[in-house]
Amino acid sequence: MYWQQPIQYAALTDVGFRRQNNQDSLAVKLAGDVETWQERGNLFVVADGMGGHAVGELASKLAVDTIPHAFDKRRDLPVHEALRAAVESANEVIHDRGLRNPEFLRMGTTCSALVLGPHGASISHVGDSRIYRIRDKRIDQLTADHSLVWELIQRRKVHPRDADRLFPRNVITRSLGPEPTVQVDLEGPSPVFPGDVFVLCSDGLSNQLSDPEIGMIAGELPPADACRLMVHLANLRGGPDNITAIVVKVGAIPDGASLDQPSVAMRAVSGGWGPFVISATLAIALLSGLYAAAVRGQIIQGSAIMILSALLWIATLFVTIRRRSDGPVRASSFDPLSTVVWRPYRTAPAKLQIRFLEEVARLEGELQRAAREEGWRIDWERLEDHLRKAMSAAERKRLSLALAEYARSFDLLMTGLLEQRRRAQHEAKWGKQPPQRSTGPSGTSPSSTDPAQPRGVDSADPVSE
């Protein structure tokens, strides 16, 4: 990546429909100057706390407060080592706080951190929160879940299709805080290309939306719209847990962009034309050796060329097959060029499908019927306008535009649903209607100080790096 290369990002965390408090936390720290950019890059963190009462909330908050500060302090270390040190520092802080108070003993949190900078993308990870990358209509899971289900699958003790049915999904095997030390997974550095979209999320999102659904939404919509729609769908599917998402979209490289060292995104080769060019070159060399031996009578020279070309071709084929094998192949040192051998843990198609759009339309219809029957406060004129545009776009096969219009209709309906839930909670507690609160001419959400309202950070406009 380049300093001048723009990004868009949005972040949102929501309590969900069945929890009383939000134990998820997030942090975003963008480089403010060229020097910081070159040394540290941009940092994004998601943490999902565990523990009764406010214990999990405290653990995740300590993680997202400690990691950015500790990461920035360790400028004497390469990015990947500084990231590891920062996460280990957070583990120490959480563990020490737990020892001071019996009620906080063994409190913990997951943690997934992403750094985007001139080196590419680096990841540190503990727990079952996830980091995805969407590229070329595919979504790649860049982190491995530290959970009982994933460990059993990796050990081939259970088939993936049976794992969720036989074992609980929420049993994690590694987290920050319970122990004095923690093993931190480091992934990458991997190359970053214009148009890449990264998604960091807690399991409150990934347990309710499939990988392809996350890929279709985050890959097609602007980050702010994508965050809201994913949180809406997770809530409509039960909202059993806190939900957190950060979506980061990498922009195009501006003309005249410069960097002290060549960009990893421009130098690294991750498959594509590389093996084809090498194979074609070796094939030409092999034919040249055959021509020299058979036509020009240079048997020794021609045979040597053919043998050498064949051996190089076999070596190239072997390396290509190894790179395409299951699981990531990690770089042994912080060498940007070595990221060409890195692979995600899991991949799925992320091309927007008409079937998914039909499912979104069906959910919107059910929500709209409930809104009319229960008398939610909705700007019906705006809602019908969005739906007309969505159906028109779908008829013209402009699926991305249709999804964007459905997302806006969900914003209006979910605002009404949250207001209805607050009124119902107030009536149950006090036995009377609360004062009416205006949603404003644009149908915007109520104040984020309300416990039922999602809280988060939103930067929809491009941020110049």
How would you describe this structure to a colleague?
With 465 residues, this protein is of the alpha+beta class. It folds into three domains: 6-255, PPM-type phosphatase domain (Phosphatase 2c, domain 1), CATH 3.60.40.10; 267-346; 352-424. Helix content is 45%, strand content 18%. It is built from 14 helices and 13 strands. The chain has helices spanning 34-39, 55-73, 79-100, 148-154, 160-166, 203-206, 211-220, 223-236, 264-267, 273-294, 299-323, 354-374, 380-395, 399-430; strands spanning 6-14, 24-29, 42-50, 108-109, 111-117, 120-126, 130-135, 138-141, 185-190, 197-201, 243-250, 346-349, 455-464. It has a seven-stranded antiparallel beta sheet. Strands 2, 3, 4, 5, 6 and 9 form a six-stranded antiparallel beta sheet that branches. The radius of gyration is 26 Å and the shape is globular. The chain starts with 5 loop residues before the first strand and ends with a strand. Mean pLDDT is 82; it is low at 260-272, 322-341 and 437-465.
Q: Characteristics of this structure?
A:
7-stranded antiparallel beta sheet; 13 strands; Phosphatase 2c, domain 1; alpha+beta; disordered C terminus; 3 domains; 6-stranded antiparallel beta sheet
